[in-house]
Amino acid sequence: MLRQSQQQKLLQKLSPQQIQLMKMLQIPTAHLEERIKEEIEENPALEYAEEDSDQNYDYDLDDSPENTTEDEVELTNDETEKIEIDDFLRQEDEGSYGSSDDYYSREQEQRSTPVRVENNFHDNLLGQLGMLELEENEQKIAMQIVGSIDDDGYLRRESSAIVDDLAFGHNIFTTTEEVDALIQKIQQQFDPPGVCARSLQECLLLQLHRMQPQSPEVSHAVTLIEKHFNEFTKKHYDKIQRYLSLDDETFKKVIHLIVKLNPKPGSAYTPVNKASSYIIPDFFIFNNNGNLELSLNSRNAPELRISEGYREMLKAYERGSKKDKRQREAVLFIKQKLDAAKWFIDAIKQRQHTLLQTMQAIMDFQREFFLSGDETNLRPMILKDIAAITGLDISTVSRVANSKYVQTEFGTYLLKYFFSESLQTDSGEEVSTREVKTILSNIIESENKRKPYSDEKLTEMLVQKGYNIARRTVAKYREQLNIPVARLRKEL
Question: What DSSP character marks residue 148?
Fold first, then answer.
């Protein structure tokens, strides 16, 4: 049975401007310039401010240029609707967000984002492909194989799948035998050794087979990878040594030979983490004789202003006496663009203010670390602490912390790095979990790799240092530090 009812609800919804402002806040400095370019392309009322131009624009009608006449805009007689444009024609000191010294010095040099030039891995493989003596049909098949190799240098697709790709995508009919033959040529002749392997085991074997001369250690290494690869990955060295019947010295040479092989042949051409290779700091912190000075990176934030041409259009419209519907619609469009441009400039200013406000609170909270660079001086700090200091919402602080970097004399850090929970010591003092992780990392780094410490032993050592911590917590911290278990840390 259908029923109609009337309900009254109180909901909190974000305006489009608030949503855009939150997105602007998340954008790191490295991508801000691109975002500004997109806005300028979409909004002709927004433009770059010239470096030598006066940033204080006069929007009053009386100060319009003398050569501006009513003829610039065709006007006809109709005043049934009046458009409020005074907001765009008044004197505004904030005509450009780049005019204020509160955010960064105007003398700071504007530079473009550095672009890293690197050799493309697949281009390198295609160059080697040209050295093979192949027929036209084989050349196309080989190009498909090379195109299927990932950035690590592995061929993740099955031969049958490559055959289907060629048939459906290029109308080339071949067989798995022909594809496998070309794969074998690439594996045997292409550099770096191990490329086009379909598994880690095959990759290591390809590198061992390419070694010259074939010493006894290489032969033993090939046997080990072919027959005892599973035991090798789990570091069951005692079992492997018994199976191969090798003395300690020879077995150690064999293991060291395998460890030196490259598990990712393509890594020499492709960065492991491209994002970390292009870090541009959003903040700079300088230690001036014990006084910490904070500045905002402005290299990717060019100065903006309202378009002079669009303001002149409104001035001409305001002076005219004849206004028809068509002219009002055109001016409404201009007003919308001016409104959007003004809001965008305000959003940039608000972004800068929020970033500096948040970073200032973090710098004051972690002052001891920024003075010394010692991780053990990091205080326990959570998002709620900074939100209480700045008066901002926790979600706003989180957006700033997750995507911004600060450059110090001790290195460049993601703001999220400075946030950590607390751990209580025997004396009742609260310390940062970052400090505990640093001590744990130092203990593991200095351990005897032939007899690495178990999680139970690590827990005992931390308790002896005064940290109340459980074994499962030690295991969690060890995993967060990307440190394997004791058995996998063992070395010969």
Answer: T
- Beta strands 283-288 and 405-408: pairing type? parallel
Alpha-carbon distances, residue 365 vs 127, 189, 379, 383, 407 (angstroms) = 54, 58, 8, 12, 17
pTM above 0.85, yes or no: no
Name every residue whose Cβ is closer than 8 Å to that of residue 200 and which is 6 or more positions away in sequence.
263
Check residue 100 and give its pLDDT.
42
* In 43-175, alpha helices (H): 121-129, 136-147, 159-170
454 Cβ neighbours under 8 A, 6+ residues apart: 486
Annotation: CATH topology of 420-492: Arc Repressor Mutant, subunit A (1.10.10)
| 157 Cα distance to chain centroid | 29
How are beta strands 430-432 and 422-424 bridged, if at all?
antiparallel
**Interatomic CA distance for residues 61 and 89, integer angstroms:** 7
Contact at 8 Å (CB) between 419 and 401?
yes
Q: For the chain, where do the domains classified as CATH 1.10.10.60 start and end?
A: 420-492
How distant, in Å, are the alpha carbons of 193, 439, 448 from that of 490? 27, 20, 9
**Residue type at 412?**
T
| Weakly modelled stretches of the chain, pLDDT under 70 | 1, 11-21, 26, 50-119, 270-278, 299-302, 317-324, 424, 426-430, 492
Alpha helices, H only, 366-449: 367-372, 383-390, 394-403, 433-445
Whether residue 37 contacts residue 344, with contact meaning beta carbons closer than 8 Å, is answered with: no
Contact yes or no for 97/352 (Cβ under 8 A) = yes
* CA pair distance 329, 346, nearest whole angstrom: 26
Chain centroid offset of residue 190 CA:
32
**What is the per-residue pLDDT for 73?**
38
pLDDT at 132: 82
Cα distance between residue 490 and residue 274, in whole Å: 31
